[in-house]
Amino acid sequence: MFNRCANVWRRRRVSGDRSSLTSHPKGPRVVPSSGSAFGWATGLAVGCLASAIYWRRHDEQSSSDNGEHKTDIPLLEQFGLPDAGLHTRQYAGHAVGFNQARRTPRWVAEHITSTKITGPANRKNMKFKADPSIQPHFSAFNEDYLGSGWSRGHMAPAANCKYSQDAMRETFFLSNIVPQNNENNSGFWNRLELYCRSLCSRFDDVWIISGPLNLPQKIDGKDCVHHYVIGKSDVAVPTHLFKVVLAGRSGGRSLCLGAFVVPNEPIGYTPKLTDFQVSLSELEYKTGISFFPKLRRGSWQDLCSVDGCQLMNFHDMECYIAERKLAATRSVHELDNIMQRLVEKGVEPHNGLLTKYKTKKEELLQRFQK
Amino acid sequence: MFNRCANVWRRRRVSGDRSSLTSHPKGPRVVPSSGSAFGWATGLAVGCLASAIYWRRHDEQSSSDNGEHKTDIPLLEQFGLPDAGLHTRQYAGHAVGFNQARRTPRWVAEHITSTKITGPANRKNMKFKADPSIQPHFSAFNEDYLGSGWSRGHMAPAANCKYSQDAMRETFFLSNIVPQNNENNSGFWNRLELYCRSLCSRFDDVWIISGPLNLPQKIDGKDCVHHYVIGKSDVAVPTHLFKVVLAGRSGGRSLCLGAFVVPNEPIGYTPKLTDFQVSLSELEYKTGISFFPKLRRGSWQDLCSVDGCQLMNFHDMECYIAERKLAATRSVHELDNIMQRLVEKGVEPHNGLLTKYKTKKEELLQRFQK
């Protein structure tokens, strides 16, 4: 298998360097992974201190190696150390740690409130596009997804940015997207996102971190990682998706935390969200990421014990989807079709939906009569 | 397959957080990826400037969204952004970009000279060990490798640090190690390392960057990445290894560059090093890494055109290995065995080796007679 792999590699060789590809285009606010300017300044101070300690330690060691050379770090860095584009990318409503090798986010962080998830912004005219801040050499493109059989799955959902059209627009950058099973995207994952938004009615602040995972599985008795890549950019298809949810009262009090790992496949209504819950420590182990590093371990309650982690059931979800379709419909015929399909699925519309249906129908009939 | 994968995940769930695991232990000098203190300070200045530009741009955008909220980045970062341990780790003789999810280096950078590769340091008493600067949660351990069928392959080779026992000792940290096919490690890769050292006799400075790769291959008509993980830490086994070699005359003049991607499998003597040569751009595309970012593209000659990229042939390599074994041998019987095995392999020892054999034999016989 590895021989075949090597052959694939050799076939794919491209001659000549594309010289323009290593310059860094302009983009969103770029900060080191510590995030804030304060963190950076602190990092500078800490770095100087650590450096001083290191050099002192190192001088002591060198003096014990009689006559040996001192390390020449500036010479090592004469042409720059390797740059894997590891800085944090800040957008209007979310932050991204991007993985240049996989052409997907490593993680996407958001902070939402009841105010942010309501407002006039909408998906109309929103288009997925390559992130202009990422070098084309390391970016995903719409062409990679189209015809691949995988949908473009938002990590920071568009609907979490109802307060700002700009913030919503930036969630359509492919730096916020992973190849996601279509049914998972519109089904279980969608219900998980709805649950996160519902938390805003019971908590003042909700922090969410989402991202892709490629987990090992046993194949022929050996632990293997096996995942697809799509398109010319070899965009990595995750085997799983993760979401860490931290919810708190005003000022970061009464914190509740839940971490979830969901397979990137159709899931349906039988499994509960708690079936996919993992400890934060286990998720950190699997992702190689420390989440909420400034949060004292053990300072939170279990989100699912406190808040239930109940996803919308089949009936309510079907009514919710019908309601959204209803709002966008412009013909009486299509309006009746939406309600008819509900009945065919055995879903009895609740009163709120029936009222909206009647109002919309009268509105359309009046418009038609004019 | 994904269902099985999900089941594996559920079975592996560990309850409870290991609270101590997110604190950062002391370790080597820690710097942001720009590397030097100068780079950091520059980064701070650039960051402030970029930040100012971003906020200006952002204010302009916000004013067009009448009455919309301004982004609250400090609130997003209240408990810290995700930390994937992406900083560069500096050691006495090399620098490492570590991959906490894979428990291997992402890349290892070295600068070698004819002086650095000669000296009294030796592998005696050198032991592989977990890197004390990496949190146990994200580290590889010797136990992961033992019994796995994969050898511990140095990225910065121990033999490149003959000038300093300390520098050599640090190459045995598992942060510098990947699971490598044993025959590849002692064979083709070893010959590539020997070639890199040989460059020091023809160039004043040699910069080398090495690391693991997991490349896609066609399986059932689809592009897949398939690789093993070993041990309790799920250390990722690379399908390939890469090495970028930059060689120059004094002061960074007359630069020559070669980039190579070698399958992590037995290779033997038939393939040439040039069979595995790739353009720097293609390697950057596959790794997601920009190499030598301060080096102007196109400012180098092709290493293999200038220097040949000839690896040691079978005869010379066998003599080289015999010579090393000979130096370490303490019995006449073993000494004769080494030479006998050469003859059995059809290798006629060159004069230099024969002289060393005779000298060593006399020395051992004299010691025995005493």
From TrEMBL, chains A, B:
Keyword Mitochondrion: yes
Principal location: mitochondrion
Domain of life: Eukaryota
Cofactor dependence: a divalent metal cation
Residue ranges of domain ENPP1-3/EXOG-like endonuclease/phosphodiesterase in the record: 91-298
Free-text function comment from the UniProt entry: Endo/exonuclease with nicking activity towards supercoiled DNA, a preference for single-stranded DNA and 5'-3' exonuclease activity.
Subunit: Homodimer.
Record's protein name: Nuclease EXOG, mitochondrial
Lineage: Eukaryota, Metazoa, Chordata, Craniata, Vertebrata
